[in-house]
Amino acid sequence: MSLPATYLKMFSTVSEDGQLRMELMEKEMPTPNPTQVIVRVEAAPINPSDQGVMFGWSNMAEAASSGTGKGTALTAPVPPQGMRMMKARVGQALPVGNEGAGTVVAAGDDAYAQSLVGKTVAVMSGAMYAEYCIVEAQMCLPLNEGNTARDGASSFVNPLTALSMIETMKLEGHTALVHTAAASNLGQMLNRICQADGVELVNIVRKDEQATLLKDMGAKYVVNSSSDSFMPDLIDAIHATGATLAFDATGGGTLASSILTAMEAAAARTPGAYSIYGSVKHKQVYLYGGLDTSPTTLTRGYGMAWGVGGWLLPNFLARVGNEVAGRLRQRVADELTTTFASHYTDDISLSQALQAETVARYYAKKTGEKFLVCPQLAIE
Q1: In this predicted model, what pLDDT tens digit does every residue of 85-136 receive, in sequence order?
Q2: What is the CA radius of gyration of the chain?
Q3: Which end of the chain has the smaller Cβ count within 10 Å, N or C?
Q4: Are 106 and 38 in contact (CB under 8 A)?
């Protein structure tokens, strides 16, 4: 097919005078090298990880938009602390959009690249909020027959994160999990995986309606962090499951410390040799998100066999290698409309994604709300 000479692509820039600016830029259509393909992007979700690049440490309460159509731009002030945190990116126009899906419309001479032409594929490129993207053919996940770009838009970040949490559990010798912000799209996927694979899971939520949602899905252990009985409930659930590994999406505050405290208290219920150093079994909390931007506070009262660290999906996949990553990706493709199905609140165009009123909606990160950028929608 004949491709346009140029296409629109979204960028986020922080200026030296403390302003964040997001806008669409017109780029020349690239020519793929032998192993590359060009994908016409048809659907790309807005994940919390995308917003980290889009908005960084700017003050989104004061965000404003200007212009119309492809000239739409969003600006927001960046406070001094935010400028210190984003010093390394000042002056750089960063592409945005971790993942998405679309149709391969051109390819290099390599046989595999050519075999993808005309197929619907999912892609994780970091530049998916664009009408087109160019990627290595090996980075594409061909969708099964009958699956659409909308079905495959969220094939990487949430599905592979949930599956990799289970892989991490197995690799590190744990037998059950604790997960926070558990009513999220990712949390619901993790519940479906754990139920299918026979893995015990303790879900931590912060609202009664979130607890109800998960229990209606069949979740066995759900605790509410806003409840007066949170700690006793958490200790009971961890004791029942034997969970010694947690993934915390909040990142800040005292939740990680509370989980470790509950793990230690649960371990103390099992008779064993006394030690002034606490329980012998290692207890681990991985911070994989930043919903709470306050400092992570640890109140040590859980012995010496514990750890708190960061966890990032690309780093984990690089660690386990192509064979494991390929196995996980294939499972996602096979269960795309069941285990890994995503539901979207609204479809928005590239220009709508820059309008302040729309940004306020998806920036709120409300449970059950997920927005889909559709770059082929008409620019208004």
Answers
A1: 999 999 999 999 999 999 999 999 999 999 999 999 999 999 999 999 999 9
A2: 22
A3: N
A4: yes
